[in-house]
Hints:
Blueprint: E1 9-13, H1 15-28, E2 33-34, E3 36-37, H2 39-43, H3 47-57, E4 62-64, H4 70-74, E5 82-84, H5 91-100, E6 103-106, H6 109-117, E7 122-126, H7 144-148, E8 150-155, H8 166-179, E9 186-188, H9 192-195, E10 205-206, E11 229-241, E12 246-247, E13 253-254, E14 259-264, E15 281-284, E16 287-292, E17 300-303, E18 315-318, H10 322-329, H11 333-338
The chain binds pyridoxal-5'-phosphate (PLP).
Amino acid sequence: MPTEPAPTLRLAFDGEALAANWRALDQLSGQAIAGAAVKADGYGLGVERVVPVLRNAGCRAFYVAHWSEAAAVAAHVAADSIAVLHGPSSDADVAYARESGTVPVINSPEQARRWLAGGGGPCQLMVDTGMNRLGVRPGDLCDEAVGTLDVRLVMSHLACADEDSAMNAAQLARAQSAFARFPAAVKSLANSAAIALGAEYHFDVTRPGLALYGGVPRAELAPHVATVVRPEAAIIQLREVPSGESVGYNATFTAPRDMRVGIVSLGYADGYLRAWSDRGMAMLHGQRVPVIGRVSMDMIALDCTAVAQAREGDWATIAYDLPEASAISGLSQYELLTGLGQRFGR
Length: 346
Ligand SMILES: *Cc1c(COP(=O)(O)O)cnc(C)c1O
């Protein structure tokens, strides 16, 4: 095949901002050192882009969810700095961990037995302090297999760190007593939001994800977090729409006057969901251009009437400041990031 022509859709990525966010979260973690959650392809931004930046900033602990995510991270950092949160669900997972040198997070007595039966070795341990997702219940910490593990790091995870909930202190107290059973292990509790809850939540290693990538799960973090990605899409057609005609599927938008409309190559297949229909915004030549009508699979329409210098081929920057985008669209900041599709030229 010949060389592909340049794409009309791209994700502008600010590596400096990502590095600065990691350093800020590391500072805010006090005496703890910040790791990084890089699951889901680095929250949708691409492991090949985010992991080298985080490594160069000083990050030495990486978290993925699936075993299938480990290899892409291991291309950039030492295998034993990568922990797999879902743990070994099969003997094949155990064999893969032992051969690759990536570290399993053990989530149940059953996973502990499976890990030990396959030969065991250094591992991490998730203790469930109230979320009832993954993790060994405190009452099961006396299980013989769990007690036999070579636990290098013991962690728990908060359900409500992004809210002022009584559950945070309750989970902290349970974590403190569970962690005390592992005097030699490194301790970890805080995700991005919990870093802002105070020093007792920091322990030895924090595990930010969202805030590294520009998300703001708690207002206290807002001054420390910079935007990392901006979707950009080219105008593939500029058209004059006469007053009274409609734009897009289901004719939800009717031109109140003669308009100049830019059709842009970004749609819900790229993760720009229909929640943005008639609500989204982009910047074109420094001016705000609203999304009009429904978001299509591959296209949106922008009202470019006020932008005299708009031309086909111009790039529009889609407004995607995560807290604001979340408030406007009703989608969580996590969904806004991880939903950005593979079609973006990176
Ligand atoms: C995803 C995840 C994190 C990161 O959480 P953020 O809210 O994105 O900072 C930390 N710990 C565990 C166990 C996770 O699953």
